[in-house]
């Protein structure tokens, strides 16, 4: 695979698309970790444990939306290239309905029986995570609605807008962590 015969225009095009996605990934990863980092800094390891337990459970629920959004990626990109925006809107709305049909009963059940669920699964010490679990479940619900729209922005090639939105989420999350 000789470097001399490399089509540098292709490399430039590839890097111009992939570099913003890599940055988006770093920002998203940092956004997911900032809560635990700041809890450790200000409150200690016990608080991280109280937060991490329900966070792992809500990530499991959120994976439904994440999977559906991954499936939407290719469809949105294809429909955008064809200029079929109404179909793009239609399948995004349908995906959100399906996601909500799957996760809403689970989230509602866990919101009602949070303490019992955590105690049965993880023991009596898990009662410390009840309030955190409820907040994270509500956040998971709204993030599951938001994610297909965020996927729509990025899959249509609007990477700068996606990056700015992710930075806004990171900054807002950091500020709210500092205030509260």
Name some characteristics of this structure:
globular; 180 residues; mainly alpha
Summarize the structure.
87% of the residues lie in helices and 0% in strands. Helix 1 packs antiparallel against helix 2 and helix 2 runs parallel beside helix 5.
Description:
This protein is mostly helical and 180 residues long. 87% of the residues lie in helices and 0% in strands. The protein has helices spanning 8-42, 45-82, 85-112, 114-122, 130-155, 159-179. Helix 1 (8-42) runs antiparallel to helix 2 (45-82), helix 2 runs antiparallel to helix 3 and helix 2 packs parallel to helix 5.
Strand content: under 5%
Q: Quick one: overall form? A: globular
| Average pLDDT taken over every residue | 90
| Residues in helix, % | over 70%
Q: How far apart are the first and last residues' alpha carbons, in Å?
A: 55 Å
- Say how many strands there are: 0
Tell me the major beta sheet: none
What gyration radius follows from the Cα positions, in whole Å?
20 Å
Structural class: mainly alpha
What low-confidence regions span 5 or more consecutive residues with pLDDT below 50? none
Order of helices and strands: HHHHHH
Number of helices: 6
